[in-house]
Amino acid sequence: MSHFELFDLPEALDIDLATLKSNFLNLQQQYHPDKAEDKDHALIKSSEINQAYKVLSNVDSRAAYLLSLQKQDHHLDQSINDFEFLQSALEIREQLDEAQNVEELYSLKNEVQQWIDGLVREFKIDYADEDWADARDTVRKLRFFQKVMNDIDKAEDRLLDDEDFDLDDDF
User: Could you give the CA distance from residue 125 to residue 142 in angstroms, rounded to a whole number?
Assistant: First the structure.
């Protein structure tokens, strides 16, 4: 059973994340080890459900999983060989390192989301055309930008925590 089948979702890059979460919670309740007669089986099933949810929750891992279903996921850990992309990626990383406030991070987040949206469109075309080499390359790029997005979120949290901290606050 594929992860998509497990959550009763279409085998596609675009899925309803609210449905995914709802079905995940229902399955977690159904296979919760504390409620099961066969606790070992429930623990294994619960772990499978968690892993499948993690894979389908993010567009980069969902795209890689779609490639794996087609037996086209080999060499996804290879480096990106697109010089222009690498140049842009380096500039975005530098912007993240130099960001001083939440507004700069929001702006950068918007730019990264535009990159992700464009790569998602590319992946859909490559996948539909069975252009596996380009689809793998696109997944590598999606993974990069997903990591950048996660780092932006962490930076936002740090900045917001710093802004909320005031030495004059009463403890």
Answer: 14
